[in-house]
Amino acid sequence: MSKSFEDQLLREVNENVLKRFGRFVDHFNRELSSMHNLNVSQIKSSIEVPFDWPPIDCMDVKERTDLFELVQTCDAYWPPIDCMDVKERTDLFELVQTCGNMQLNKVVLVFAQLTQEMQYMCQSGAQRFCDPLVLYGEPIGDPNAEDLSSIAKFLPLLHDLSSYVSYCLKVVSNVVQQMNALIHISNIPVKKGSQNNYKELIPDFGANIRFDAVFEGMSDLAVTLINLDEIIANQMNLKRDFVNYKRIIELVSANSAKFDVGNETIKVKILFKLIDRIEKQLIDGEGIFKAYIDAMSNEGSVAKNTQMAEQFANYIRVSCSELEMSPELVSDTKFLSICALFVIYIWIFKREDKRLYKTVTDCQRKICVYLCHLKGNCSVIPDKFLANNLPRSMFDKKLMDSFSASRELILKQNFDKEVKQLNLKVTNWLVRFEQDISDTTDLNTNLIDILAKQQKVIEEGLENAKMITTLIKDCIALHLQSGRPMAKHDLLAICKAICILKGIQLAFHHKKGVLIPIIGHLAQYNCCVVLKMLSNTKTKIIADVKKYSEKKLDLLSAVILASNCLNGPILTNPRRILTSICLSIISTALSAEDIAKLLMLTRKLELFTKIHALVDIRTNCEFLYFNRAVLGIYFNNFFESESSNVHELRHFFSALSDSFTFINKCKDDEKRELLTKQFETETYEQFKSDFLDRICTEFETELRLQVHSDLQLDDQSPFKRHLHDFSALLTSEPIRFNDRLISIKSYVEEYLNEMAYNLTTIALHDWKTYESMLNLAKTKYGLEFVRSQLPTQTLEQGLDVLEITRNIHVFVSRYLYNLNNQMFIEKSSNNKHLNVLLIRHVANSIQTHGFGIINTTVNFTYQFLRKKFYIFSQFLYEEHIKSRLIKDLRYFRESEANKFPFERAEKLCKGIRKLGLTADGMSYLDQFRQLISQIGNVLGFVRMLRSGALHCSSNSVNFVPDLDDLTEVSFETMTSDESLSADTVTAGQNLDSILSTLNRNFTESTDYFKLLVDVFAQTFRDSKNYHLKNFYAILPATTYNFVEHLIISKEKMTRKNKVGAAFTDDGFAMGVAYILKLLNQFNDFDSLHWFSSVSEKIKTEINEANRQSALNANSDVKLTQTTSLTIKRLENLQKEFHLLEYSLTSSRILFKATPESVN
């Protein structure tokens, strides 16, 4: 019977899931279709973005709408916020329906939605209000200047805060009423024959129902409100400005005629009422937390609900026990939330439970929590919080004195010793973390043991981070509250601890890619353990079928619902809430040991889902913004004793950078920019004056001592004076600080440049000393300095042709040629710019070195081409290549078509690729294409030389009236006819020689291309090199390979990583035209009609794609998207083939071989 009952239940659940999945698919398809029709234009402009991404924020809105149907809304609407939890499209309502028990679903859904809303309000309050409230009144400019515009700009935030508080009170009041009503109805006795049986509307939970998830949300929200209370209480500037602003508005409202308010009188009065309400609720009231308690104790029946009171007390006891056993698994404010819930428990139920009070204080003593640190640089002392909020009759002076004495011991402890021990502990942990996280499994290793070891080291890292951040904040807060100055050694120890803390954060961030799968495995393993326990519980419940009851059915439904939530991809926040509520329901069927184990496992699952966010929270050092006085002391000490430890300095600046995230929470844009700039400038100036300037002075002194080592100096023993390790500082990478990069090396270089220049101008005879100092710094430390002399050449000199000629093989492989603009551009560079070779650069080099460099370059080109053509011949002679080309030519000649098939070229590319690849992933055809491009680049360089020579000559003959008249005019003859002196005749002779040279250089038309063709043509056309005759047959495959390569290179131009990006490579077309000219194969290549074949092939595929798109226009969106991408790819391919054809035609013109006039 039990088996059939279980099968029927599972069958119903499966059918329900399938129906919901079908509805989801239909709804999802409708949404995709509407999105495509509305945004088709934007989709075409950003084709790389997938169309089927679901909206990322719609689930938040949907969940809040469901909640508004349960509780009353307040004045303001709160938009969704970015939370740390993972999102999924399945909401609470869909998750709850998986168990099929409608009575249970209603109760679970109500409490799950209310719990989720409390968590949302907790996150919203912390993110929207805490930091802006703290930043109010931060001095900008003159701190004494009173400006009420600040409070006027801040008033909307206060109004939002007032609405937020009101809404929190309504939500928590609803929570208490729901719990009270559920327990009340559960305890109503059932009368026989009664028609109004309320117990039929709700599940039979019995007397041991628990609300752990609800209590957790309630206590966390209480901590947020306590945080707001503390911030407002410490904001004297806000209170002062608010009172002054209220007085002005009150004065204007009372004397509206005097202030010429006009028709705005009613608005002014409404504004005054609003300000008065905000003042009573936030500024001068009893406190937000007190109103929070009052909202829950308004219902008189709640105080009489003893079962609900026991649930409060039991949760507090369990939480204290959990906190004592595993403090690293709970939040840092967990104990304060327990204290807040205990205060709520005392005032709601009007009890003075001293035994529970002793449990809470014993927990505080065991875990040594003497301060709880909140957002906004606020700290709360738990025992004082209890003393201020509990009845006076519960006050225990001896207990308070013992806690105060413990805090005094913290102030007296040796922080330096504590930090050294922590440093050793964290160093040991870092070694084990690096080893254990990177540990791989083998056949002899148990995976569970490895996961346990990895989990242990992760939890230890979190515990270390919590321990260090608690030590830092406790030390700072206790000194501030006691008004005692902090000793210098303690301050330096705190700064050291901050750097250690950032080291832990850096370790987690560096291993983030490795941690993600490990965390997934840990979550999966813990889920399996929980599911196993739930399965055993389910078996235990089903086993005793004879004692069937509604209560047992509800327990079984809760087990199924919890199992379904844990079977999700990851334990999201809604699933965690539902799981916690279901575990609370089935707690009656579990032992105390099983309950504790389940709580620990679910807590670990919650930890795994937000571990990186927890690391960032525990290593956040935004408190340094309020303690900037430590900067000068730390920088001075770093200069004196820690200057070689650059990594520590980098960690400290990383801690300072956390303040910018805090400043960015300011709502006033102008003030936020000013605060950011002020903090950045102030910190940099402090670092500059206390470290950079001093290290520059020390470095200058060190250079002077080494340059003057031949003189009689004082004792330079390192045991008698401190020596700095300048090499570590000067070789370190720049330190990032917000938008500023602080380069110690650049700063020292600028300082020495300025020092050497200024002192040399004062005492010119000391130039050699300062030049020696700079040379020593350059040789020993690798510093770079600007030259003090004026440049000897123009700034537009560019690349030197002579250097290019000497390294012609490097040049053609690293530069790309552009045929139309006649320029070379560098492929890639380690710098942030690329070098370009233009005609004017060539002209400058010719003007510097003379016209003889052209012949030298042509000779170097000839030697280079000889080597490249040898490789060219070897490639075509290779048997695999030659046989394939002969086969393709035979196929083309035997076929009836007069066009070379596109498929044959594509097949040849793939066949050559199968022959093998290089280490860089290049095929032999890729290397052959590069060889042709390098040959073309050489010819392009020769062409640029000729153009540069003409450019240089044209600049020289600007002052000659007409070159044609020079053949008829002779200055030597004219001076002789006039019987002038011999010197004048010699000058005329020299002028004639110069003009003759200019005329010859300007009009001489040496065809270097013809020379390079003639010198190789006979060899290429020799019968011994018959294998070269197949060259034109490989051009279809080579051009196809080139076009694909160029498309990929152009696509990389828009990417962030531009390695391999290019927009031109006309050297290939130039090289193809030159080789065809050498082999006299222009007619042979034209007979292939290759470009016509490509055009027809692409047009055919485009037409087919358009036809498919028209057929599937309204059926399949994904197929339409694929077709659009195909058409775009084909159009790009056609465009690149056209450009190659045009470039090849232009190159053929240079060799006087066009398709119409071929030799």
TrEMBL record:
Which Pfam families does the UniProt entry name for this protein? WASH-4_N (PF14745), WASH-7_C (PF14746), WASH-7_mid (PF14744)
Q: Name one GO cellular component term.
A: WASH complex
Q: Which residues does UniProt assign to the signal peptide?
A: none
Q: Where is the WASH complex subunit 7 central domain?
A: 623-964
Q: What is the top-level taxon of the source organism?
A: Eukaryota
Which example biological process does GO assign this protein? endosomal transport
Q: Which InterPro entries match?
A: WASH-4_N (IPR028191), WASH-7_C (IPR028283), WASH-7_central (IPR028282), WASH7 (IPR027307)
Where in this chain does the record put each WASH complex subunit 4 N-terminal domain? 71-621
Where does the WASH complex subunit 7 C-terminal domain lie?
Answer: 984-1152
Q: This chain belongs to which protein, by name?
A: WASH complex subunit 7
